[in-house]
Amino acid sequence: MYGISSESNNVMDYTISNGDTELLNAPGKRSQDVLPDYAAAIRRPVTLWSLHSGWTMYAFLLLGLGFAVGHHQYYMYLNGTPADEQVQKMRYGTVLAFLTKASLVAAVIAAFRQRIWATLVSTPLALKALDCLPAAPSDLLAAFNPDAIRSAKIAVFMAWFSWQVTFSCITDLSSPMIVILASQSLSVEPTIDVTTCPGAKVLNFNRETIEEFRKLDPVDNVPLLPASYWNSTRFSTTQPYWFDYYHAPFVRLEQLATIALYQDQPATGSNASSIACGHDWDCSFTVKFVAPGYKCDDIVTEGVFTKAAHDIRPPFDTSILLPLGRYSYYAVTHLGDYADQQMGDVFPGGIPKSEPPWPKHFGVFRTEPVLWIGYISVLTSSGRLPENRTAPGWNESFSPNIIRCENYETEYTVFFEYINELQKIRILDRKYIAPILNTTLTQDIANDGTRDTTVAIPESNYVFPQDENYGYVAAYHSFGCKHSGNIYKIIR
C-alpha cells in the first residue's frame, strides 16, 4: 500500500508499508498522533434537543393520556343523552380516539428507539437481530424474529405493544382504558326514560258537558269539533225558552270510524308521535279514560237460553236463523232510537214553529238502543257443508246464537307505543261501569206531542236537554249510532 510520511524539510517520500502492518490499531494501542493538531478545537454540537432526547417520549405520553381522558370524558358526557346528530358525535369521538392511539404509539416508538441504543451499548447482538430491531415497529415479521426476542426482550415488547394499539378494536365498553383504544366504541342503544308525556292525548267526553259546541277551546292550536249536530228552540240564545237539543251524530265521526277500521288502529295526525313523545323520540305510555263501550252477553247459545237472559227476550227468535230459518246473520239495532226530528213543524235548525209550552219530553233521551245480533255457528269439522235442506246432516251442521249488546260507560286501560313515528296500541283492560241510559224499552207507544214514540221505564232516568249530563249522553249516543248503523255481514 501507499503511505504518506512528513519530514522536517517538507519533502514527501513514498514508502511501501509491510502487509502485516495494521492500519487500525486496537483500541488500547491507537496512536495519539492520528488526529491533526487543530482537532482539539472541534466540538460536537450541543443542542437542547440532544441534552433532553427523552422529551419526545414523555411529551407524546402526556399528550396521549390527555387525549384519552378527553375521549373518556366526552363519551361520559354523551352517555344517557338523546342519540341526535349521531354522525357528528361519532366523528368527534373517532378523532379523539385516533389522536390517543397516535400519541401513545409515538411515545412507545420514542421509548423503543431509546431502548435500542441502550441494548446496543450493553448487549452483543447477532447480525440478524441488529437488522430486525429497528424495523420491528413497522415490520410485523421483524417483531417476531427469534434472535431479536432473545437478545432484546424489552425492546421487542415495546414493538408488540405498538402493534397491539394499532390493531385494537374492542367492543367491550366496561373499562375506560379499553374505551380509549377503540375508535368505534360509541354505540346507540335503546333506553327507558321514566318521565311524563304532556303531549299524550286521551278521550275526554266530559268536555261535551262543560263546553258549548259553539265555542270549543282549541287544543294545541287545533280546533275541536263536536261529536253531535245540535238543534235549537230559538233563533237567538238570548230569547226566552231557548235551549239546544240533540239532532244527529256529527259527520266526522263516520270518517274517523272508517279510517280506524281500515287502519286497524286509532286515527292519528301525521305529527302524533312528535306531539306525544317529542321530536326524534320513541316513547310508550299507558293511559286510562272512560269512553263508550258495548257490553255483550250471550242470550241464546246453540239454541238454548243462557242464565244471562233472565227474563229478557230478544225481538226475534232463533227460528229465523239456520238451520230452521234462512239467515246466517240477523241484527236489530234501532229499537227505541232517538227521533232525529222531534217536532213535526219546524224551521231550519229544528226551531219549532209552535210557541211554548212545548211537550214535556221534547228532545229527551229516553233509552239507548240495544244491539240484538243473531248468528250461527258451524258445527261440522269436515270443512264441507250440506248444499241444501234436503242434504243429509243439514240440521246437525248449524247452531243458532243470539247476543245482546248495551252501550256502557267503559273504563279503558290502553298501552300506546310510538316507534319510528309509527303507533301501536294494546288494550290492557276494560271495565264496564254502567249503562249510559239505565232504562228498559217497553212495547208501549208514546203520544206526547213529539214525533218520538219511544216509551221506557223508569221515566225518572230520562235525560232532558236542561240536564247537566245531556251533552255527555248525546256524545255516547252519537258513537253508538255510528256503531249500530254499520253492523252488517255478507251472507254467503
Can you put this structure into words, describing what you see?
The chain crosses the membrane at residues 55-78, 90-112. Keywords: Membrane, Transmembrane, Transmembrane helix. This protein is an alpha+beta fold and 492 residues long. The chain folds into two domains: 54-168, no CATH class; 208-383 and 391-489, no CATH class. The protein has twelve helices and 14 strands. It has helices at 48-51, 55-78, 86-122, 127-132, 146-151, 153-167, 176-179, 207-210, 251-263, 272-277, 394-397, 470-484; strands spanning 2-5, 13-16, 228-232, 244-249, 283-301, 304-305, 329-332, 346-347, 351-352, 371-378, 398-419, 422-435, 440-441, 456-457. The strands form five sheets. Strands 5, 6, 7, 10, 11 and 12 form a six-stranded antiparallel β-sheet that branches. A hairpin with a 7-residue loop joins strand 1 (2-5) and strand 2. The termini are far apart.
